[in-house]
Amino acid sequence: MKKHLFVFILITFTYPSFAWNNHAGITYLILKDHWKNQTPPQVKVESLNSFLKQEKDSIHEVLSLSENWALQKLPHLTKSSDNLKFSPKNSDSDLVVQFYRALRVNPNHKAALYIQSVPPTEGKKLPLDELTTLHEKGKLVNETFISLSEGDTIGADHVLISATDEPDYDLDLHLFEDNNSEVGKLYGFGLQPFGNPAVEYSSQAPFHMGFFYEPKIIFTLAGFLKKTYPELRIHQFSELSKLAFRKGHPYWGYRFAGWALHYIQDLTQPYHSSVLPRVSAAKQIGVQLVSFVGYQKPKNNMIEFVSGRHTLIEEYQYYLIKNLILSKNWNHPVVSSIMNISENEKREWKGYDDVRTNVCREAYDAGDPTDEQLENLNITKYEVLYEENHPIHSILGSLLKNTSKHTRAYLDQLKM
C-alpha cells in the first residue's frame, strides 16, 4: 500500500511548484506600506566572497549551531559529513563554493550583485545567465535585473525585494540522490521524497513546501511527506542574517533575510501547506485503489482539478501584481489587502516554531475554502485579468493578506 500511495503522491507533485510566482512584487507592495513612515536604510553592496572572508570564524559557528537546531527539529534530516563543513582554514579562493556546500544548497548558485527592478528602471542589465543556472528561465525573462558593483550604495528595500525572489533561481535544485548531480550524492538528503526528480524545477519542491497537518493515516501510509526542509532554510538564512547585521554587513543582513522570507512566503500559499485540499484521506486512498484495477479516471480527474487551481491562482497572481505595480493602481482590492493591515490583524514573530504553528496552520486551514471558491469560479486557466470586483480578487486578497502579515512580523524582529 505504501508503495502505491507513493506513486500517487509522486504523480500529484509533478506539476510546477512555484508557490507565489512574484515574491519581489508582493514584497514591494508590503514594504511600500510597512516602511512608509521611514526612509529605507542605505547599505553598501558587498560581494559574498568578501563577507565570507571577513567572517570565517563566526560563519563556521553559526552554521554548526543551525545544523544542530535542525537535527533536533527535523528527525528525517541527516547530519552533514565533516568534509562539507565550513572551516575557518578554508582557502579564500573557494570560499563561496565551500559556503554553499556547508549550507547544502546548489554549489553553482551565482549570488550576483544586482537588484530586481520593481517597477522596471534604467540601468545596466544583468544577463539571466549571470543570475541563474536554470535551463528553463520561465517568467524571469519578463523581469528587469540591474547589475550592481561592490561598493555601490543601495536602499535596503531594493535588497529585500530582490532577495525574496532569489531562492527560486536555483538555490535548491538537484540536491537529492536521484537528481543526477554530484552534490545529490554528497548532501545526505536521500532520494527525492516527492515531485519528479527528472524535472529540473520540481527537484526543489521539498524545500519549499511543508506538510504538518495532514490526517494521521496519510502520514502513516506516506511518511515521506514529512521530509520537507523549508524550516532548515529559514533557520540557516535567518541566523546568517543576524550574524551579518551583528558584524556590520547590512547588505548581507538584508539579503539573507530576504532569502529566509522567501520560504515563509511560500508556506503562506495553501497548496504548499496542504497536499490535496478538499480531498479526504479516504478519497485519496479510494481513487488509488480503483486505479489498481484499471479505472484511472477518478484519480486523473482529482489530480487535474487540484493542480489546475494551484496553477491558476499562481499564474493570475503573477500577472495581476505586475499590472498593478506598473499602473500604480494602489486602490485595487488586492493591493488594499496587502497594504492595509489593521492592528488586530498584525502578527508577532515569536520564534521558529511560528512557521509550523502559525504560518502553516493558517495556510492549511485556508486550503479547503480557497480550493472550493476557486472551483466555483469555473476558470480553467489564466487568460485575462478581470475587473476589480471579480471574486478572484477577494480570494487572492485574503491569501496575500496572510503573506503580508507574516512578512511584516518577520521584518519587525530583525536586529538591524
UniProtKB/TrEMBL annotation:
Alphabetical UniProt keywords: Signal
Superkingdom as given in the UniProt entry: Bacteria
Secretion signal, residue range per the UniProt entry: 1-19
Listed GO MF terms: hydrolase activity, acting on ester bonds
Protein name per UniProt: Phospholipase
